[in-house]
Amino acid sequence: MEKTTDAHTSQWRIVDHDVIKPGTRGIVFNEPLIFENGKPGRTGCDIPQSEFPKRNLTAHFDPALLRHRVEGLAEVSEPEAVRHYTRLSQWNYGLDGGFYPLGSCTMKYNPKVNETVARLEGFTGLHPLQEPQTAQGALRVIYELERMLCEIVGMETASLQPAAGAQGELAGIMLVRAYHTEKGNPRKKIILPDSAHGTNPASAALCDYQSVPMQSGPDGLIDLAALEKLMDEETAALMLTNPNTLGIFEKNIKQVCEIVHKKGGLVYGDGANTNAIMGKTRFGDMGIDVCHLNLHKTFSTPHGGGGPGSGPVLAKGILAPYMPVPRVTLENGRYALDWNQPKSIGALTAYFGNFGVYLRAYAYILSMGPQGLNDVSDAAVLNANYILAKLKDHYHVPYNNTCMHECVLSDKLQQEHHVSTLDIAKALIDRGFHPPTIYFPLIVKGAMMIEPTETETMETMDMFIDSMREIAELAKTDPDAVTKSPTLAKVKRLDETQAARSPDLRHRS
Ligand SMILES: *Cc1c(COP(=O)(O)O)cnc(C)c1O
């Protein structure tokens, strides 16, 4: 490799003439379970002697219910406890550690200022049952964030309640059902292009709709003729993802919406990928009636560990009467809660949803400003196209388009050497990268879906590209070197089915 001398970033090191990519060498401690650490009787703190006389509990409780010794708790010192958890945290791969190009997930770096805002005591000390007049600031955040998001996607009404993208979709389809029901017929079907996200059909099914799959055209876009044929007066809605899961923008979206509207249906837009189009175009302007956003993707909240998310549902005015309660209202400078919405689909979460996520999104939007959000889309799309351009001679590109915020490759060329997408993903781990999304979208055999996001530097992307090229080359010259990856990771190839079905929680590596 020639690029070694002008090490692009401090993460590059030359050891024995070998370029070491981030995270592939160095001190990695073994760590037993915490129960296997420490010694009987060891503690991390001293509790002062009680000033009260000892009482015999058997006088008050059935002796059979009393335990004299608590079995099975870890007995460790404070440093042992701290080191144990610190080491475990270092085994974890996170955004603060490195590149995480997981397509469809928008694993972008989350600015720390958001965390500072989310930790302000005035917010963290609030109780959700507090009287609205004592929580005006928090209600203002909800109200203003709803307005800002409406502005970004061109909708008229919003509710932040849904706790994830998938729940936002569910809420959106519940709105669709409420709308059609009031018109006299809830209708029976929802059309779903095969380029839609996997949670879309699940949302349709949960609302008692039958999913009608629709094949994409050869260009990866919705086939207008096919849609025209499928769309009828028993179809409640078309659910689409735009940009779709191939990372392609539905350029005929206006005609798509017209075809659906002509038959009285509504269009649902999955807006989880809004980081590709913010400030450029708006769902509302395209003719989409209802959509959700993923605050934990586009609007920068750490996610991926199953932590709290937020998938606000946003809609045109025709759906406003059905929106979830309570609504946050503003009258005469006072924020209040309105539960009196007789047509509402009801409350979707306890209290107000994941408020901490709202604070992060609010801080993010304010700190970026309109121009900043616009720049995000530029950089997200540019970065994905950069990777696509640099890899297209090394990997098969199933849909040869300019992509939006993510690009899709496949293992077709490597399959000739019996190297698969899974092998390539594992080989990336040895090179210090989190693998991209693999085997999704389903319409591409052996798919690799790469979303670099706007927060990555060219140097980081170049390291990734070099690794991907090196793996493609190895697949030809020494395929075993790829298929036996990872060799440097703490655990090697796992039987992933077995790992999910019967996890061995006592395994020590
Ligand atoms: C992530 C994603 C979802 C689901 O969002 P969750 O918050 O994980 O429920 C839905 N659609 C698309 C396109 C996504 O990328």
Summarize the structure.
The protein has 509 residues and is of the alpha/beta class. It is built from 15 helices and 14 strands. The protein has 2 domains: 113-367, Aspartate Aminotransferase, domain 2, CATH 3.40.640; 377-501, Aspartate Aminotransferase, domain 1.
Report what the structure shows.
By secondary structure, the protein is of the alpha/beta class. It has 2 domains: 113-367, Aspartate Aminotransferase, domain 2 (3-Layer(aba) Sandwich), CATH 3.40.640.10; 377-501, Aspartate Aminotransferase, domain 1, CATH 3.90.1150.10. It is built from 15 helices and 14 strands. The chain has helices spanning 78-91, 112-118, 121-124, 136-153, 165-182, 199-206, 224-230, 253-262, 283-286, 355-391, 412-415, 421-430, 458-477, 479-483, 496-501, and strands at 13-15, 18-20, 157-159, 189-193, 210-214, 235-241, 266-271, 290-293, 313-315, 327-331, 334-338, 407-410, 437-438, 447-450. The strands form 4 sheets. Strands 3-9-8-7-6-4-5 form a 7-stranded mixed β-sheet, sandwiched between helices. β6, α8 (253-262) and β7 form a beta-alpha-beta unit. α4 runs parallel beside α10 and α10 crosses α13 (458-477). The protein starts with 12 loop residues before the first strand and ends in an 8-residue tail after the last helix. It binds pyridoxal-5'-phosphate. The site of pyridoxal-5'-phosphate has 13 residues, from α5.
